[in-house]
Amino acid sequence: MTNQLVVPGVPFPLVPSSAGHWQVDEAAGAVQVSALPHSDIFIDPGNGSTDAGAGAALNAESMLNAVTLLGDAPEGDFQFSARVTVDFASTFDAGVLMLWLDERRWAKLCFEFSPAGEPMVVSVVCRGVSDDANAFTVPGRSVWLRVSRVDRVYAYHASLDGRAWQMIRVFILDDETSRDKIGFEGQSPTGDGCSVTFDQIRFLSERLADLRDGS
Description:
Strand content: over 45%
Largest sheet: 8 strands, antiparallel
């Protein structure tokens, strides 16, 4: 496909949802995105219909319009991580590591600007509608995020230094993982857009030995 991008550290091609928003800096080993104004991937749990199938109409509080850069996740266990730096301007601006199966089944690990004006690690898992879970605040505008798969289980971790990892959550997206896509997302639900940089990107086809010991 002509719109595929090769991102340093990722051993498979990624496809942008919208052309022109993602830039790869090979020299810096980074990928950057300009998040669209008033964009997000979220299905409001208070108003989204749990009976609606994939592709059903979404309510006004829900959005699936944020720009993504996704590729087919290889089979087997892996660890996918990056340092995420966000030029925060408005509430819920975020840089995201994204898992995607379809419009009603996906999961996000976010570095997000909280309503209190603090950078924060946040996770969202959607199976029909979205949940929303805050983890911890970050003293700066960069943090390391990691998505790991162990068999059919996913684990989210975050780190302030890229070495010691804190578990954010463990979950199953679906019984089958063969169609899952993984990559990046940038969002600005309440604002006029923001810039996000992902660097120090690593994809390891290695099983995470322990979910809880900080490794």
